[in-house]
């Protein structure tokens, strides 16, 4: 579990394994784990990414669970039967908002009715950085995440789950880590010439990433964000033409989700066309030591985004 690849510059990144964060929610099958965890965490997040961010921003001093375990996609996730127990036993639930976790509304409403605070992080974003319509994936931009760390700390402080001064220190330290992450990612992707800073994704999930790191979203195979509806053949043909004229033959997809249509699209554009897996919707459920991943571990948000920047740089700088 602690195996890590050498020379990736992550030696200083604290190892938090999301596997531990989501303990009690480790079923292989989505929504089918009805085993009640031994003890529910006082702090919940809807996604494993936010659970890691919150845990990291509090120096891992507070137990944080996620309703959607690492390795599962929030878009098509059905909450397990024990999710309602989890939320009722928690003190606060942090949601992504912007429509991403809208299907959990009944459970979150029940939590609210029972006096559990529900915090919408998307709605708490800085007003000078408004949300991008049709794209709820604002965690794909570390500065946006840094922007809500203060909100997380402010909501946790009255709950007295950890020392208040220590909470401030941890939140400040993690904010610094996120600034460093933004710098590191930008530096990693400097090798990509401006003519190739164009993204094609499965659905609209890299708008915030593009905005921060100076990319253009050329298009998405599925134009309706968050929807898993069938991609339209005519739309895909238009996208193929667009990619061909832009000289872009890379399609970025969520790692671990096979996508035959993305493979066909990339190959239809060019013989060298490729599908590149990124950690967008979720980090991997387990440590990824496969040859394809180059022995890379991506368990924390910081690590996940570091891998994403490396993969985007490698794919588009060719
Ligand atoms: Zn998505």
What does this structure look like?
This protein has 10 helices and 8 strands. With 318 residues, the chain is of the alpha/beta class. The chain folds into 2 domains: 18-185, Nitrogenase molybdenum iron protein domain (Rossmann fold, 3-Layer(aba) Sandwich); 192-316, Nitrogenase molybdenum iron protein domain (Rossmann fold, 3-Layer(aba) Sandwich), CATH 3.40.50. The strands form 3 sheets. The protein has a 4-stranded parallel beta sheet, sandwiched between helices. A two-stranded parallel ribbon has the order 5-6. The radius of gyration is 19 Å and the shape is globular. Bound molecules: zinc ion. Zinc ion binds next to loops.
The percentage helix is 25-40%
User: What is the mean pLDDT?
Assistant: 85
In what order do the strands lie side by side in the largest sheet? 2-1-3-4
- Apparent shape: globular
Q: CATH homologous superfamily of the largest domain, by name?
A: Nitrogenase molybdenum iron protein domain
CATH architectural name of the largest domain: 3-Layer(aba) Sandwich
Secondary-structure element string: HEHEHEHEHHEHEHEHEH
Number of helices: 10
Which band does the percent of strand residues land in?
Answer: 5-15%
- Number of structural units classed as domains: 2
| Ligands (ions, cofactors included) | zinc ion
Distance between the termini: 33 Å
The major beta sheet can be summarized as: 4 strands, parallel
Structure class: alpha/beta
Q: What is the CATH domain class of the largest domain?
A: Alpha Beta
CATH topology of the largest domain: Rossmann fold
